Design the sequence.
């Protein structure tokens, strides 16, 4: 067998030598690949998969592991693999109603700060005017990918931040979009508040308006020196604004007025929890941007807790928050009937399902929220009617609240018991479908409350319906179930 040439030409190698050389080369290549992979894994910029366009949009802004909401069509899955983090869908309600707003408020209360809106999601949002307005008031765009067609938003309302102008004006106007607003600014507020009745002041010398006292619902000003004169003319509120490059105008100061023109006291919201509960701060951050309120912890709904100058008081279970316009809708109903002591709200679960349209009490003492079944079939939740009890949240006339608390002997925070003593004291309790709230945090399963034996009075029920009909209104399987 000839010996190999000095240049080592492989043609002169034996088969065994060639195989040995090939195996050595493969091993060397494998070792190089392993070293390269190890170096890549050790790199702080390492990623098993190259980020997709949505990840590239989200990653610089949304912390890893933080949930993000995605406006989606009904039944559309949230592809968390594309988000690179937990996601939750927000489905608009094309037929209108507060259900989708309830879902968004619950998400905000649960700590969701970011929302992703695609082109398809934007079209869905346009079909739900109520949600679109609420979304625009509380979220601002922070990043966009035009090619992919997605925009990321961050919650814009935080502790100490001025309230969104359109939400505030809606609230101080008691939800009446036709209420007249005087634009005593140079900011063209009609452009910033479309759909509302806004007019400039009639020209007048000096800084005095040519209007009678308390004849215009809301007056908008941009000068602190005009506040007192605006307060003379305003019937409901004076709002001072300042120019803002992003929103056009920012609320600087708000003065709410009573019917006699004096400043209205803050409305107390008593929450059935202990002082220091983190939920109190969450509630203040979400609801405090709407109107003048005072949030208090009230483990016991006694007379001391209910002491207030406000003509109304709100009692809410922990984890329940009123939706925009809730308190105002209850106020309007209370103003119509002197014997009406309280207003029960339309309560949604966190997912937007109706949890209770008021509550019904039964012979065994249990109180259940009216929802589903025969109630839904008969649209029971769409009109004002008397109910046995409030569930989740109730707006009370202050005098009725103190009387009921005294009759309850300062017992533990229990809306069913307070409702019972309300009826026993000669007051009425009605359900108002326009006053809505959402249970953002889950509660323990079981009855919504217990009707005290000492309070036998209940609202009149048609005798021909019988107890069986009322029980058919209760979907027990829904009470306390996930939203």
Sequence:
């Amino acid at each position: 067998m000839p010996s190999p040439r000095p240049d080592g030409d492989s043609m002169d190698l034996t088969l065994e030598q060639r195989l040995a050389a090939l195996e050595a080369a493969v091993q060397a290549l494998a070792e190089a690949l392993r070293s390269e992979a190890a170096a890549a894994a050790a790199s702080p910029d390492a990623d098993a998969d190259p980020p997709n366009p949505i990840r590239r949009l989200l990653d610089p802004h949304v912390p890893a592991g933080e949930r993000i909401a995605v406006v989606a069509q009904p039944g559309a899955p949230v592809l968390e693999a594309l988000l690179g983090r937990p996601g939750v869908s927000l489905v608009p309600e094309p037929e209108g109603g507060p259900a989708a707003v309830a879902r968004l408020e619950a998400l905000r209360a649960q700590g969701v700060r970011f929302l992703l809106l695609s082109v398809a999601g934007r079209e869905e949002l346009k079909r739900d005017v109520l949600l679109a307005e609420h979304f625009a008031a509380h979220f601002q765009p922070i990043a966009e990918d035009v090619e992919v067609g997605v925009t990321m938003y961050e919650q814009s309302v935080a502790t100490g931040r001025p309230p969104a102008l359109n939400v505030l004006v809606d609230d101080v106007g008691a939800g009446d979009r036709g209420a007249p607003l005087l634009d005593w600014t140079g900011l063209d507020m009609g452009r910033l508040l479309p759909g509302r009745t806004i007019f400039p002041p009639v020209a007048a010398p000096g800084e005095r308006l040519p209007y009678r006292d308390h004849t215009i619902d809301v007056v908008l000003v941009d000068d602190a020196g005009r506040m007192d004169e605006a307060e003379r003319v305003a019937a409901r509120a004076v709002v001072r604004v300042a120019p803002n490059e992003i929103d056009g105008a920012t609320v600087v100061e708000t003065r709410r007025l009573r019917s006699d023109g004096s400043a209205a006291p803050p409305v107390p919201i008593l929450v059935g929890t202990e002082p220091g509960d983190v939920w109190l701060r969450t509630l203040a951050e979400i609801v405090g941007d709407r109107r003048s309120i005072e949030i208090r912890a009230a483990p016991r709904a006694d007379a001391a807790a209910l002491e207030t100058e406000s003509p109304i008081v709100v009692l809410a279970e922990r984890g329940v928050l009123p939706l925009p316009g809730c308190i105002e809708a209850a106020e309007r109903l209370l103003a119509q009937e002197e014997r009406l002591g309280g207003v029960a709200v339309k309560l949604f679960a966190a997912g937007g399902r109706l949890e209770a349209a008021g509550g019904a009490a039964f012979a065994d003492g249990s109180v259940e929220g009216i929802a589903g079944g025969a109630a839904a079939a008969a649209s029971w939740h769409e009109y004002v009617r008397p109910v046995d009890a409030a569930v989740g949240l109730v707006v009370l006339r202050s005098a009725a609240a103190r009387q009921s608390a005294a009759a309850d002997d300062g017992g533990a925070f229990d809306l069913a018991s307070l409702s019972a003593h309300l009826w026993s004291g000669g007051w009425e309790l009605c359900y108002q479908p326009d006053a809505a709230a959402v249970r953002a945090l889950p509660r323990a399963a079981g009855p919504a409350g217990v009707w005290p034996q000492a309070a036998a009075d209940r609202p009149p029920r048609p005798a021909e319906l019988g107890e069986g009909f009322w029980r058919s209104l209760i979907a027990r399987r829904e009470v306390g179930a996930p939203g």
